[in-house]
Amino acid sequence: MRIAMWSGPRNLSTAMMYAFGNRGDCAVVDEPFYAAYLAQTGLEHPMRADILESQSRDAEVVAASLLGPVPAAKPFFYQKHMTQHMIDGMPRDWMREVTNVFLIRHPARVIASYAEKRENPTLDDIGFRQQAELFDLVKRWDQAPVVDSDDIRSDPALVLERLCERLGIPFSPKMLSWPMGGHKDDGIWAAHWYGSVWQSTKFAGPEGPLPEVPATLQPVLEAALPYYERLKAQKI
């Protein structure tokens, strides 16, 4: 089974990749379209040159690899995808051949976390619009599960058991922890973005009140909220 997990940035996505990667029966890949996205958009991101050098910039080649042989011939292949990478022109037909899942987080939390690493995020940077678009696409042929990062942090065992049940795979308690220091398949950008999760060995506990979003980013929050609420209504 190939599991394509779709989220925006700063959304527990790396911890989820570590959880699946710690199962022992699951290969993982980290944001395989990142270089293609940067090459096509010309955007300046932290470590841009390193990212472009580390991955294929040809989105069709990337898509083919996601359907090709699974690394180490493992039975499960967890693919961590960023919704904002799926700009117009990126191949999407391959998505019919994988099991799609959508990971959501309240946009106030995403915006506050993202702004600490890269200033003044736009709506397109945080991926909520693209996530809803991809969800609507997948709905044409499947009912993809939606999981909320707040729920995972509140009760990871329960939510991951439910997710595995929906996917039709056995739950493994190994998913609830991982070794400190990152994963061998982390993208090269991990040095900039993954500092806190590198220090972790399990999911952090429940989050507190929503953070204050500065006035300059309120329009981004207001634009993202309807997309989040629509997917939240579908969560497991």
Structural topology:
Elements: E1 2-7, H1 13-21, E2 26-30, H2 34-41, H3 48-54, H4 59-67, E3 76-82, E4 99-104, H5 107-117, H6 123-126, H7 128-138, E5 146-148, H8 149-154, H9 156-167, H10 190-193, H11 195-198, H12 218-232
Parallel strand pairs: 1-3, 1-4, 2-3, 4-5
Helix pairs in contact: 2-3, 7-12
Please explain how this structure is put together.
The protein has 236 residues and is an alpha/beta fold. Helix content is 42%, strand content 11%. It contains twelve helices and five strands. The protein has a five-stranded parallel sheet with strand order 2-3-1-4-5, with helices on both faces. Helix 2 (34-41) packs across helix 3 and helix 7 packs parallel to helix 12 (218-232). The longest helix has 15 residues, at 218-232. The radius of gyration is 17 Å and the shape is globular. The model has no long low-confidence stretch (mean pLDDT 96).
Overall mean pLDDT: 96
Total DSSP helices: 12
Shape: globular
Structural class: alpha/beta
Radius of gyration of CA atoms, rounded to a whole number: 17 Å
| Elements, N to C (H/E) | EHEHHHEEHHHEHHHHH
Strand content is 5-15%
Strand order of the largest sheet: 2-3-1-4-5
| Total count of strands | 5
Distance between the termini: 20 Å
Identify low-pLDDT runs: none
Q: Could you give a short account of the major beta sheet? A: 5 strands, parallel
Helix content: 40-55%
